[in-house]
Structure to design on (214 residues):
């Protein structure tokens, strides 16, 4: 009796050009969501990405799938910035400052209006990306706190609220024209995080869980 040899199945990997097209779509979508808001036509996103409509819909069957991918990609890049901050062996507060400025450039606050009541905010991909970025930001802040440079009465939520608010243009102003003020105002905020604190903050340190409460 002979034993049948298992058939080796070849794993199909996406072609390099297919991956590039997907990346172009996500990049174009992020740019256009920031510039024009959540209702920008998907056909316009495909045009900016330099791909056909069929290519966009093959990768993202509906708007929610594209929004989810954009959010995950933004959080992943924010996580990478936090990881880079943790590898720096110099001034812990300076590493926190650089991380905050890089995070602001991602403009995640401009994506918030796209999360409609029907959007699955608890999709496993989003949950995994969210947990990763929150843990890494907490580590960056804790290192600055242990060095005695970061005031002890602020939390991850405080930092992320400030980044979101300060990187969002005021109502009635041009989205892109306000960009030149973002890093100036972020630095003013960061100076207020330094220890020793010059004043007592009302309330308690904000956590990311606090921000998720209705």
């Amino acid at each position: 009796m002979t034993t049948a040899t298992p058939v080796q199945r070849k794993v199909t990997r996406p072609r390099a050009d297919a991956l590039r097209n997907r990346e172009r779509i996500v990049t174009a979508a992020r740019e256009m969501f920031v510039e024009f808001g959540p209702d920008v036509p998907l056909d316009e996103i495909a045009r900016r990405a330099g791909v056909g409509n069929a290519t966009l819909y093959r990768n993202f069957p509906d708007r929610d799938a594209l929004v989810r991918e954009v959010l995950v990609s933004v959080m992943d890049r924010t996580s990478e910035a936090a990881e880079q901050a943790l590898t720096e062996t110099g001034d812990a507060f300076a590493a926190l400052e650089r991380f905050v400025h890089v995070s602001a450039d991602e403009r995640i606050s401009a994506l918030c209006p796209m999360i409609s009541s029907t959007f699955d905010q608890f999709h496993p991909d989003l949950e995994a990306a969210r947990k990763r970025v929150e843990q890494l930001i907490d580590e960056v802040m804790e290192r600055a706190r242990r060095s005695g440079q970061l005031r002890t009465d602020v939390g991850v939520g405080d930092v992320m609220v400030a980044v979101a608010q300060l990187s969002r243009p005021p109502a009635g102003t041009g989205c892109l024209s306000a960009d030149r003020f973002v890093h100036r105002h972020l630095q003013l905020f960061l100076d207020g995080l330094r220890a020793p604190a010059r004043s007592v903050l009302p309330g308690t340190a904000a956590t990311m869980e606090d921000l998720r409460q209705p």
In short: The first helix runs from residue 16 to 36. The domain at 15-61 is CATH 1.10.10.60 (Arc Repressor Mutant, subunit A). The mean pLDDT is 83.
